[in-house]
Amino acid sequence: MQLTLLGATGPIGGQVLRQALAAGHRVTALVRDPARLPQRDDERVGVVIGDAASAADVEEAARGGQALICALGPGKDFKSTLATRTAGPVLEAMAAAGVERVVWLSALGSGDTSRRQSHFQAVASKLVIGGLMADKGIADETIARSDRDWTIALPVMFGNGPSTGTYRTIPLDGTRGRTGGRIDRGDVADFLLSAATGHLWSRRRVILTR
Description:
Layout lengths: L1 E5 L6 H10 L3 E6 L13 E5 L5 H8 L4 E4 L11 H16 L3 E5 L13 H26 L4 E7 L1 E3 L8 E4 L10 E3 H12 L7 E6 L1
Parallel strand pairs: 1-2, 1-4, 2-3, 4-5, 5-6, 6-10, 7-9
Antiparallel strand pairs: 8-10
């Protein structure tokens, strides 16, 4: 399968790329700095230099792709508006490139999903990264209102381990209760890849936890 990946040099996107290549897929990565991409010389990896907030750059990366995975993250910038700056351009680019499937990495606690966090994590998120979570929530709504075939991933707090394959997937809508704990970044990457290459979670928001 031909995939487009945003965030390939990040901690989750890097694992998505490794897992995708191991599974036999081809990937076009949109990156700012190709020197940070270890697989840049791999013949299965196409590299487009650009900005995920630029519809033209995303469109260039998405052309010929069958699905787009957005694994962008704010790093340590707790006031980042990256999610809202990229959601609109990504959707515009996908429409122009004729790509229907998008898997969007968000977080449990974004927007109104804080109601499903554990009490501790909900309080901590509000105090420390409230602005970031609000920004993610606006972006999530932009994706969910679109006409694309979307899935929004809502992981709980991150651990740094590889994929275990034993994580839980909980539909946000149609279920109740609060969810806490951690999930390893490798398992988040596994979900993003499996969702992009299938349609099990089409047009659904999904909580990810151990």
